[in-house]
Amino acid sequence: MVDVIIRPAQQDDYESWLKLWEGYNSFYKRTLPLEITKITWQRFFDHYEPMHCLVAESGGKLLGLTHYLFHRNTTMIGPTCYLQDLFTASAARGQGIGRALIEAVYERAREAGAPRVYWMTHESNATAMLLYDRVATRSGFLQYRKDLA
């Protein structure tokens, strides 16, 4: 792995984070309105929001991001941690950055008293699943969803 620091995003990371965020959205072939992106960014710095952002930095450059949030659960006393987004710049893939970001979320979840971290990925994301199968257990659950708007 390259010499990388995993740290919370800072306000002045916006432009670098935005490039990674756009890369992530492009990977999933989606375009978000700028309003959603701006609100998402603001939530990371609102202490009343359960949403957080970690970035991977090396040599002053952001190479990856992860977004995670905490929520209540009907089967546990402690909060559950949902790792919502994980992305590594294409030039930095295969260097352990994704794993380091996941491990950092695990640590934040432990500190918050969360007994579980979970996430989803698209069934076509075979490369990422090679990593996920090494750092977590597939639950066997499938996601169903209905868009209401």
Could you explain the architecture of this structure?
With 149 residues, the protein is α+β, with helices and mostly antiparallel strands. It is built from 4 helices and 5 strands, in the order βααβββαβα. The protein has helices at residues 14-27, 34-43, 97-111, 126-135; strands at 5-8, 51-58, 61-71, 80-88, 116-118. The protein has a 5-stranded mixed beta sheet with strand order 1-2-3-4-5, sandwiched between helices. β3 (61-71) and β4 form a beta hairpin.
Describe the protein's topology.
Elements: E1 5-8, H1 14-27, H2 34-43, E2 51-58, E3 61-71, E4 80-88, H3 97-111, E5 116-118, H4 126-135
Parallel strand pairs: 4-5
Antiparallel strand pairs: 1-2, 2-3, 3-4
Q: What do we call the CATH homologous superfamily? A: Gcn5-related N-acetyltransferase (GNAT)
- What is the CATH architecture term? 3-Layer(aba) Sandwich
Estimated share of beta-strand residues: 15-25%
In total, the number of strands is 5
The total number of structural domains is 1
H-E order: EHHEEEHEH
Low-confidence stretches: none
In short:
With 149 residues, this protein is of the alpha+beta class.
List keywords for this structure.
33% helix, Aminopeptidase, single chain, 149 residues, 4 helices, 5-stranded mixed beta sheet, globular, alpha+beta
